[in-house]
């Protein structure tokens, strides 16, 4: 997975190609590549050697063939960062962001992320599929949420180290749960990282539309122990990214292990652990003082919706993927963020919400659009990454 892209105060972390360890491996470009002979004395030595051994030029036979056109069979021929860019392009095809009056009284605006499908003939034939919609909560909601931000400050000493690590990367926290050693899960990292980057991109499109002020701009008592990112608070980028990663991993491992078709202890125990760590990463941002709990709630919804869309794009999700709604008008501001950990084998049982003793679970509306399923056209490289990633889990019981 890439470094976390949800905090622009760390500006070098916002590039989707600057991956660290436990990433999509796009930093591993020097493994056996000609880059190692491109500098200084090494290049000079290679030039001298070529002059000494090459001999007369011998042209290739006229019958030579190029690689197959647009074929997944070429996947291993391309550098990891090239695969990452192609996967990013495939996932971003047809994305759109719109606004319209929200249903009901009050004059609120509803913002929606869409994906338009392409017809099987290869000619763009837009058929809109809703990914997620958002209605901003009222200002008084955030004023009440400050009480929770203040309460979470008591955990700062306990959570400081992990929170600081998570400003750089959340990958190790997922890696230890899913036994994702880099050398054994190369394709898994690449596939999950593509979804991670998409989740970050979409969160950063929603943020300026919601235009929610950070907790530290409402009270001088907040005093975050990390730099407050220079973008809107809702949805939380960390929550979006973490829940997208958890969802994609669940779908990938489900397909690779046959989870749901027989006893698979690893996958059954994996699901709640992945969701719990995604939730903890989210909550740590409130502990740090840079997010309200409702930011995590909105981010969790978006992350899971994006994760399901990514799985649908490669044919790994049964049924429709999109059409989730976060309506901030449903919350009075006193609810904390909690996420459920019961997940059915088809990923249909994901439950999450804002919870407190008085208000119970505030559920998002799921499947509100009733739109078409997200199609699998135009994802040659992404599909190939997915299939290779699945194979890495075939032996897991």
From TrEMBL:
Gene3D superfamilies: Phosphatidic acid phosphatase type 2/haloperoxidase
Residue ranges occupied by any Phosphatidic acid phosphatase type 2/haloperoxidase domain in the UniProt entry: 203-312
InterPro entries associated with the record: PAP2/HPO, PAP2/HPO_sf
Disordered: annotated span: 1-42
Cited Pfam families: PAP2 (PF01569)
Record protein name field: PAP2 superfamily protein
């Amino acid at each position: 997975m890439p470094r976390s892209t949800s905090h622009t105060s760390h500006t070098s972390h916002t590039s989707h190609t600057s991956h660290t360890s436990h990433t999509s491996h796009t930093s591993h470009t020097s493994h056996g590549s000609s880059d190692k002979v491109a500098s200084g004395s090494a290049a000079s030595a290679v030039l001298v050697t070529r002059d000494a051994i090459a001999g007369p030029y011998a042209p290739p036979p006229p019958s030579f063939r190029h690689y197959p056109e647009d074929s997944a069979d070429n996947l291993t021929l391309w550098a990891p960062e090239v695969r990452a860019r192609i996967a990013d392009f495939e996932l971003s095809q047809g994305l759109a962001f719109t606004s319209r009056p929200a249903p009901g009284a009050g004059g609120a605006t509803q913002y929606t992320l869409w994906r338009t499908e392409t017809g099987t003939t290869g000619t763009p034939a837009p058929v809109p599929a809703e990914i997620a919609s958002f209605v901003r909560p009222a200002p008084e909601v955030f004023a009440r949420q400050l009480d929770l931000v203040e309460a979470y400050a008591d955990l700062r000493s306990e959570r400081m180290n992990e929170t600081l690590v998570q400003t750089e990367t959340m990958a190790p926290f997922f890696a230890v749960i899913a036994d994702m050693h880099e050398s054994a899960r190369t394709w898994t990292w690449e596939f999950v990282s593509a979804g991670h980057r998409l989740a970050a991109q979409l969160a950063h499109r929603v943020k300026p539309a919601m235009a929610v002020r950070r907790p530290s701009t409402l009270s001088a008592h907040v005093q975050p122990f990390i730099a407050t990112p220079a973008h809107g608070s809702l949805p939380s980028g960390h929550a979006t990214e973490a829940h997208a990663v958890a969802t994609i991993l669940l779908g990938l491992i489900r397909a690779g292990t046959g989870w749901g078709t027989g006893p698979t202890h690893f996958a059954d125990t994996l699901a709640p652990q992945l969701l719990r760590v995604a939730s903890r990463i989210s909550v740590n941002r409130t502990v740090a003082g840079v997010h309200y709990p409702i930011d995590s709630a909105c981010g969790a919804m978006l992350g899971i919706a994006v994760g399901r869309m990514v799985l649908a794009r490669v044919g790994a999700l049964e049924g429709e993927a999109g059409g989730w709604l976060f309506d901030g008008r449903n919350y009075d501001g006193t609810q904390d963020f909690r996420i459920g950990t019961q997940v059915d084998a088809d990923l249909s049982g994901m439950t999450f919400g804002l919870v407190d003793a008085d208000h119970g679970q505030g559920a998002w509306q799921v499947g509100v659009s009733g739109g078409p399923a997200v199609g699998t056209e135009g994802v040659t490289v992404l599909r190939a990454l997915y299939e290779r990633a699945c194979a890495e889990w075939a032996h897991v019981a």
